[in-house]
Amino acid sequence: MGGGNDDIPGGFMLDGLDPAFAYTLRFFGSRRNTQTRVTEYRVTGANSGMATLQTTGFNIGADGAYDGNDDTFGVVGGIRPDAFGQIFVDLTLLQGPFAYINALELTAQQPGDWDADGDVDAGDALGFIACLAGPGQTPFSPDCLSVFDADFDDDIDLGDFAGFARLAGTF
Length: 171
Hints:
The protein is built from 3 helices and 7 strands. It has helices spanning 122-131, 142-148, 158-168, and strands spanning 11-14, 22-28, 37-44, 48-56, 74-79, 87-95, 103-109.
């Protein structure tokens, strides 16, 4: 869990999301200030994830002269909404007096669509084969779970193949 000041409330809920999809959240935060400020973004739905981002600090900009973040994002991927289609985002101060969020990009990943081209086809079958690790085994990439873990048991096995085959039909 976070190690910062979580006594000050800061968060929001995203609603109306499709529980069949996995979502990636990209956070951007910045303000010009020489004081180091670090924000934790904790994301919770049916599963959870966390990212940290330094938003301000002496010369942290891409050019080495700007005192604010101008090129780095906090990314949390593979988050599935809860049964009500909700994802909760909590901000925590890890360092400094302020937590920042200037922008949030939310993208949805269709189940089974490994190559993110909008369909489930033979190209995605190659991705499934690469991710197939077996019962109780961790796949090579966390993205495997967000795309292919049809039974939500944190592995990619033959149980998930049945879900993939239903999505793929015949190609």
